[in-house]
Design goal:
The complex is a heterodimer. By secondary structure, chain A is an alpha/beta fold. Helices cover 30% and strands 21% of the residues of chain A. Chain B is of the alpha/beta class. Chain B has a single domain, classed as Protocatechuate 4,5-dioxygenase, Chain B. In chain B, α4 packs across α7 and α8 runs antiparallel to α9. The chains are: A alpha/beta, B alpha/beta. The interface between A and B is large, with 49 and 49 residues. The complex binds fe (ii) ion. Fe (ii) ion (FE2) binds next to β2 of chain B.
């Protein structure tokens, strides 16, 4: 069996007009024609799987994947119910859905499959499957859009999907069912009066389509947060379909793009775009975001800054909460060394204390100063469920934190004399920890003791207790 | 500031002329977990109980109204989300299977409910007159959202009263909590007027949670109550603050603090139900009865009754 691959990607609009009443507006008809064109291209590409990521299927508990082999019902839109009903009967690849679910699990991502008679398939998925796969010839799979998910989670969702496509030798087409600008008119309009809600929305849509036309999908992915702020009604935490689609395409900027149509649907920006994987040569690749392989619990770190401020605020007094033990300001008795660049203590103690020629450090873990995030991921979630984590990333972060504290004291990592290391899982983690050690502190040459312990106060796997030479500064 | 006596006189006058009455207004949240835990014959999944504090709260609410006569239930659910104005279920009967798209493992409910189309039309028409964008939903294939059904079931499991079902206009998403509230207060006023003019006795229900931050994982047994608690202390403080206002008759204060509450507690009042309810009750100054409070996958839920029948100044 040859390795599976993505043979094409499509971006399609979500509202039911293109299925039910394209003839009522020239723009809707052009979108419909573009859908029909896309359906033909998919057929010509000999695709044997359609993967739909739908922004109109929100989920809360992880991502949901449709696994009913033959979901049948009649879809009526919540807003546009007067346009009519859309009966559907789809051909879902339940085996692929189960395999994708398992692949997510392997990459640390929570998801679940859905197989219930009468499950309401969302409007975006219904429209996409009705028009892109009119005779149901190609089996499909549909995934939800998790309202809390962010880039890492959405990227990993794509990677695990690709894992299965490759392993099963499929020729897959990836589809995002989404609006560009999603602001609709808030009152009924005559079909002939439809247009993009505002000039600003229209300008942003055109800019996005210019990028996509040039095959610069990863650039659009990296603009997702800006797009969210500029032209998206704030229903969810982030605008994420382009993260997923770019992940499905190996985060590339040199696809071959073709904008088949761009029109308004009740004020929202609707476009049909084809992205062919053939390299177009255009588009430099400029990464400024991490390429994430495993999901490690980013969910509670909402990186939309605006959101951060309003998250979780108590009415009064103004009090910040976070999961895990409370954070303390480091104590400051004589000889104390504290660093703004090191994570806050979880009790009443300083980062380090100098006595004579020696500097004693409090136990140092991998938590990041400021965000309190754990590189390599926490070892369990808030509910105590174990998570996959990267011991090497955690160990490196511990040593970085030690370095910061020593630098604050005026010294460097070369001053370390003695280290006591604590691991919560000796069997699993010793090798990875030892490898990072050999690359870093091993070269400095301190004495070392490594102990297995039951737990640490935060969901981390490694902590180090350090004694160092105190720098001789006056 | 209007004179309170004049207010009562107006209310009496309205009552004498028209006979319509709001017998009670309730905050009646709709997490499908409550229906799931009760194992009614209409719901497919089977549970080993759970969320008893809230289910007992609903029991107390039902008890409180068991000897009160009324003709219809007017309900606003945040899970019929409309972006193009406010919509109303506009056919006499809806019968189908409602599957919760978020918790399909817990809620697959066979419903059969009747609509008071006459009262619906009255509210719809008055809202249109007031300049609100409104639409009747007259497609027989439409599936009623799980929020409406959960609240409908928990409030009145026998389903023997016709409903008026109002969608949740997502103006908060489009503009702000302030704009949402302005529109919902207007909708509340016309709802009240239409009920008064209809000559009917009505219960109004806002179907929403208070703080609305979910856990992002579900335990292996969803009804495992050892896993159930509020997501954060901040959320708890907000919920308790709102409950204090409910109990001490400070509806205006709730409306005043709605923007902060909705944003900071990520409250489900973003759907407009609570603002609409308080406006429909004419911003009550009398204490409400707290029938129950509990959390559901981390969100805060209160069952609260404003016994309007005891305060409406009705002439017997
Ligand atoms: Fe809800």
């Amino acid at each position: 069996m040859t390795e599976g691959r993505l043979v094409g990607s499509y971006i399609v609009p979500v509202h039911p007009h293109t299925v039910l009443v394209p003839e009522q507006n020239e723009g809707w008809q052009r979108l419909r024609d573009a859908f029909d064109d896309a359906a033909q291209r998919i057929k010509d590409a000999d695709a044997d799987l359609l993967v739909i990521y739908s922004t109109t299927w929100p989920s809360i508990i992880g991502h949901q994947i449709q696994a009913d082999p033959n979901p049948e019902w009649v879809m009526v839109d919540h807003d546009f119910h007067d346009l009519g009903s859309i009966p559907y009967s789809f051909n879902i690849d339940a085996d692929f859905a189960e395999a994708w679910n398992a692949a997510n699990e392997k990459r640390g991502l929570k998801s679940r499959t859905i197989n219930y008679t009468g499950f309401p398939i969302d409007v975006g998925s219904v429209v996409a499957l009705k028009l892109l796969n009119p005779d149901n010839a190609i089996p499909a799979v549909i995934v939800s859009s998790n309202v809390y998910a962010n880039r890492a989670e959405t990227t990993v969702l794509a990677k695990s999907c690709l894992d299965v496509i490759k392993a099963t030798g499929r020729k897959a087409v990836a589809v995002t069912a989404m609006s560009l600008s999603n602001r609709m008119f808030t009152a009924p309009i005559e079909p002939k009066d439809d247009k993009i809600h505002s000039l600003k929305d229209d300008e942003w849509n055109r800019k996005i389509l210019e990028f996509l036309g040039e095959g610069r999908l990863e650039d659009v992915g990296q603009l997702s947060r800006t797009i969210h702020k500029q032209i998206r009604v704030q229903k969810v935490v982030a605008f994420k379909p382009m993260w997923w689609l770019s992940g499905m395409n190996g985060n590339r900027n040199n696809l071959t793009g073709d904008v088949l149509a761009y029109e308004a649907i009740h004020g929202a920006g609707g476009a049909v775009v084809h992205l062919d994987p053939t390299p177009s040569g255009a588009g430099d690749k400029e990464y400024d975001e991490d390429d994430v392989e495993f999901f490690a619990g980013e969910r509670n770190v909402l990186d939309a800054e605006d959101q951060m401020e309003s998250e979780d605020s108590a009415p009064s007094p103004d009090e910040k909460t976070s999961s895990g033990p409370a954070l303390w300001e480091p104590t400051t008795q004589k000889g104390s060394v504290n660093s703004e660049a090191a994570p806050k203590p979880v009790g009443m103690y300083p980062h380090a204390r100098k006595v004579g020629d020696l500097l004693y450090l409090s136990g140092v873990g991998p938590r990041q100063p400021g965000t309190n995030a754990i590189p390599g991921g926490p070892i369990h979630d808030d509910a105590g469920n174990p998570l996959d984590y990267d011991i090497k990333a955690q160990t490196r972060a511990v040593i970085d934190n030690i370095t910061r504290i020593l630098e604050e004291a005026g010294g460097s990592i070369a001053d370390v004399l003695d280290v006591t290391s604590f691991l919560v899982d000796m069997d699993r983690d010793f090798a990875g920890y030892n490898e990072v050690w050999a690359d870093t502190l091993g070269k400095v040459g301190p004495t070392r003791t490594t102990l297995a312990i039951r737990a640490l106060p935060t969901p981390i796997a490694v902590e180090m207790k350090v004694i160092a030479r105190a720098p001789t500064t006056e | 500031m209007r004179n309170a006596d004049a207010d009562i006189a107006l209310k009496r006058l309205g009552h004498i002329m028209t006979q319509g009455e709001i017998v009670a207004g309730c905050l009646a949240p709709h997490p499908p977990h409550l229906v799931y835990a009760e194992n009614p014959p209409q719901n497919e999944p089977v549970a080993e109980g759970g969320w008893e504090q809230l289910r007992w709260g609903y029991e107390r609410l039902r008890d409180s109204l068991k000897d009160v006569e009324y003709d219809a239930i007017v309900l606003l659910s945040p899970h019929w989300q409309t972006y193009v104005g406010t919509h109303f279920l506009g056919l006499p009967n809806f019968k189908s299977l409602s599957v919760d798209p978020v918790f399909p493992n817990l809620f697959r409910y066979h419903y059969d409910l009747n609509i008071d189309v006459d009262l619906t039309k009255r509210i719809h028409d008055k809202a249109a007159e007031a300049g609100l964008a409104v639409k009747m939903m007259e497609n027989p294939d439409f599936r009623v959202d799980y929020g409406t059904i959960t609240t409908g079931h928990m409030f009145n499991p026998s389903w023997d009263k016709p409903l008026v079902v109002i969608s949740s206009n997502r103006s908060r998403d489009y503009y702000s909590v302030e704009v949402m509230q302005e529109m919902m207060i207007e909708l509340g006023k016309v709802t009240r007027e239409a009920i008064m003019e209809s000559g009917k006795k009505v219960v109004v229900l806002a179907s929403n949670s208070l703080s609305h931050r979910h856990f992002t994982t579900e335990s292996a047994i969803p009804e495992d109550m050892s896993k159930e608690h509020i997501t954060s202390h901040a959320m708890h403080l907000w919920d308790m603050r709102m409950i204090e206002y409910f109990k001490s008759g400070q509806a205006q204060r709730i409306l005043n603090e709605m923007p902060e509450f909705t944003e900071q507690a990520i409250a489900e009042s973003d759907g407009g139900g609570l603002s609409w309810l308080l406006s429909t009750l004419d911003t009550p100054t009398y204490p409400a009865t707290l029938h129950g409070y509990g959390t559901i996958i981390g969100t805060g839920n209160a069952i609260v009754e404003w016994p309007e029948r005891q305060h409406s100044g009705a002439v017997e």
